[in-house]
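quick one, 510 residues, struct below
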Amino acid sequence: MTTEVRVPTLGESVTEATVATWFKQPGDAVAADEMLCELETDKVTVEVPAPAAGTMGEIVAKEGDTVGVDALLATIEAGEGAAPKKEEKSEAKAEAPAASGGSDTSGDSIDVMVPTLGESVSEATVSTWFKKVGDSVAADEMLCELETDKVSVEVPAPAAGTLTEIIADEGATVQAGGKLAVMASGDGAAAAAPAKSEDAPAAPAASGGSGKDVENAPSAQKAMAEKGLSPDQVQGSGRDGRVMKEDVAKAAAAAASAPAASSAPAQAPRAPVSADDASREERVKMTRLRQTIAKRLKDSQNTAAMLTTYNEVDMTEVMALRNEYKDEFLKKHGVKLGFMSFFTKACCHALKEVPEVNAEIDGTDIVYKNFVHMGIATGTPTGLVVPVIRDADSMGFAAIEKAIGEKGARARDGKLSMAEMQGGTFTISNGGVYGSLMSSPILNPPQSGILGMHKIQQRPMVVNGEIVARPMMYLALSYDHRIVDGKGAVTFLVRVKEALEDPRRLLMDL
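---
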């Protein structure tokens, strides 16, 4: 029986990849889920596991070939070639508890692995361990928390037992499917932990040697060969100093800029700091989420022709309607009636008239979306995230309020999945909850528009020739001037203003 190895889904908007490295050759025995090759896209590196055990057959896509999603990479022939490896592995596992515990009554060894991190995410950073070596843990009890550039992932205990070894310490970078720790189950679990803790002091001495026997990432080795760099010239950021592909890119960039730096006056990256000031500073490494936020926002400024137009809206009618129906709304729907549902409905209404604000650029094409997946920017303790409410244009006020409440709670608890933050077509950002009177929001690429809400403030306004106090809010629409003209942007903002100042227009589709 022949099993086909095909290119997996590469992530949103990614359609092709390059075969970087083959870890197996024709005739090699492979186990199920063993890594066969590594693919590189313009965003991430993707490892391709074996879909079944067997013997490596034909390699269809060679190293350096460009392949599309679901393209055939290789074949695996069913056979007994992989069986001996698996048996040897199981024998080694069976011997391991006896060796560490010194007795055949030790519990079984259980590996704690990195879970699936989400589409297009191949690595994470260990942010916090909730347990230490020797601690007893219950099944599904949280052991540690991983941080990717998009979400935080909690790792539960696969079974009850004792934590005997932590392989990936806090701050270490781990790959999807990698090993995080080892547990012991059964009666021998408690005995295994002290033996491991006695051996622990020897670990620093082993790591303190000058020799480096850590295997670098295959993609990094290939990149070093292409750029003519040796491993000694690259500072690894991976676990135990493992050199990653991005480390090679940094080293190459530094080498290229060195001649220019020597001929030009040196410019310090930060101003000199006195010893007294330095002692009062605190240096904290940016989280992966914060690094991604910084990169995406700067990329947005560098890519889009971003412009912001402003208007103001009289919130009198919306506030009156909300006060009149909020109790009845809560009683019937079980959720409070807020302002966000009004703004969401008003934006969906305006996007139908000005569809280019709901579009995106793909190369030399403009992709118009005949639906609205509304992103709601949400501040969390770890940074800004944008959960997406899908098909918001077909939802009522109650459904929108429930979705916003649920997504917001999940965002603050770090429970959002990657899928819940992808695919948005337009975004609303409410800086008013923090007291902002006016700001210019930055686009959330590849979207072409984002609406900024602000603080509601009583201001004197001229109404029918008289000066009266009105609850006013400044609105800001940032848009990509490459596909949205000034007329379209202003029209969109005026339609939002009109819908909010007279909510009946939403019912009449005016």
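The mean pLDDT is 79.
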